[in-house]
Amino acid sequence: MALLETLLILLVASALAGLAGSFLGIGGGIFLIPFMTLVLEVDLRTSIAVSLVGVIATSSGAASVYVRDHLTNLRLGMFLEIATTTGAIAGALVAVLVDPRFLYVTFAAVVLFAAVYMLRTPETARDRAYRAGTESPVAHRLALGSLYFDHEDEGVYRYRVDRPLAGFAVSAVAGGFAGLLGLGGGFVKVPAMNLLMRVPMKPAIATSNFMVGVTAAASGLIYYSRGWLDPTLAAVVIIGAFTGSNLGTKLMMRAKAERIRFAFAVLLAALGLLMALRAFGVEVLA
Amino acid sequence: MIGPRDVVVGMVRRLQALRRAAVAEVEDINRLIYHVLRGGVVLALAFVVLAFLLHASGEGPLPRSSVPPRDLFGSLLPPSPAGLMNLGVLILLLTPVGRVALSLVAYAEERDLRYVAITAIVLANLTLALALGLA
Fold it and tell me: A97 pLDDT band (50/70/90 cuts)?
């Protein structure tokens, strides 16, 4: 394929990945890596490296807007980043010791469960609002609860963070798995925050978007300093992903939380099926 | 159509906005992080667009592999598409790290010791990951 043709297709693809990534709170690597290897016939290592750049461009572009509009829970993000970065390092170190099939089965089960759970539990204005009862001591001491403005119904919601330690543990596992696959792991962080810690969907997405950039930066810098990163492909992805993320953030802030959750559940279900197939030896994507 | 002039003007405006954010006394941490993240991406964007424009005007080939940071300075004098593109990508990769580092300073200024500790652990993890990866 001619270089110019590859660059133009990649520009459009990364814009779409940036749009979806900023709308769903993920980096977009799960879209970009298979697309680059299968359609553009770029080798896997280069695809992962370039996709990491796309994840950071999407994350930084989207997170800046979400942070400015106080949608991101900075404290929760920083707290969970301990888990994701530690998990990523541990994952990279034990990668050789773990049977990948076991990982895929576990992961498929978790992701499919999250998809069903997300579809079955609605998020109404009442669910978003602060609940009575005592807050978990850890959440209280770290002041994890926060408030945000929801464009959907022009309401300000104060929410608290439930089960911080369980969420921390899940984030660590997500970081480990993400480290193994060269992804940001946003598709685990969003359900962990929304379903387990009961953070409303929009702050969960904004906070996840804020976090994935840090995980991706650590791996991305390693790829860069080893000379494995193709700057020309990366440059096109920066332009595309940033443009897409600018549109995605606008859509997300105005969208109904229910619609976003439905889109997210569909993504999780598709991902779970792919992982399950891979566990049984069927390679569908990359 | 974006010309080199617009890129330079855009960069200058971004830098001025960043300076105003740093100077203003009543800036909260959200505003600061917004400027770091936004500024990082826009700066990276400006360099890679400039690199494509230089390449289009026949100033040199497009790079296909990254230049390690220690060799980057040499490839920037004189400015070449390869050097500028590498610089842009590297700035983007460093943006999230810069965000964590600046949060540390901001929490320290707020004397929020718990979050100073939490941010320091994240920063140490990032450094460890880099050290392990580079070894």
Answer: confident
Torsion of CA A141, A138, A109, A26, to 10 degrees: 10
Chain A residue whose CA is closest to B119: A78
Across the interface, whether the CB atoms of B100 and A81 are under 8 A apart is answered: yes
Residue A1: what pLDDT?
67
Residue of A nearest to B68 (CA): A225
**What's the total number of domains in chain B?**
1
List C-alpha distances in Å: B87 to B51, B66, B68, B98.
Answer: 10, 10, 10, 15
Q: Does A88 touch chain B (CB under 8 A)?
A: yes
Inside any domain, residue B11: no
Interface touch B41/A238, C-beta < 8 Å:
yes
How open is the CA angle A86-A92-A96, to the nearest 5 degrees? 140
Asked if the structure places residue B19 within a domain, the reply is no
Chain-chain contact of A67 with B62 (C-beta, under 8 angstroms): no
Cβ atoms of residues B33 and B99 within 8 Å: yes
> Is 70 exceeded by the pLDDT of residue A166?
yes
* Model confidence at A61: pLDDT above 90: yes
Crossing angle of helices A3-24 and A231-254, in 10° steps, is 30
HSE-up (13 A, CA, CB side) for residue A169: 4
Residue B47 in domain: yes
Neighbours of A1 (CB within 10 A): 11
Kindly state whether A8 is in contact with chain B, defined as any CB-CB distance less than 8 angstroms: no
- Whether the per-residue pLDDT at A63 is higher than 70: the answer is yes
Place of tokens 């034990």: A94
Residue of A60, A81, A228 lying closest to B41 (CB–CB)? A60
Rounded to 10°, the helix B113-134/B81-109 angle is 150
Mean pLDDT, range B8-35, rounded to an integer:
75
Please, what's the b/e burial string for A242-253 (b: 16 or more CB within 10 A of its CB; e: otherwise)? bbbbbebbeebb
Nearest to A43 by CA among A233, A282, A246: A233
Is there a domain that residue B6 lies in?
A: no
Range of the domain at B68: 34-134
pLDDT of residue A281: 74
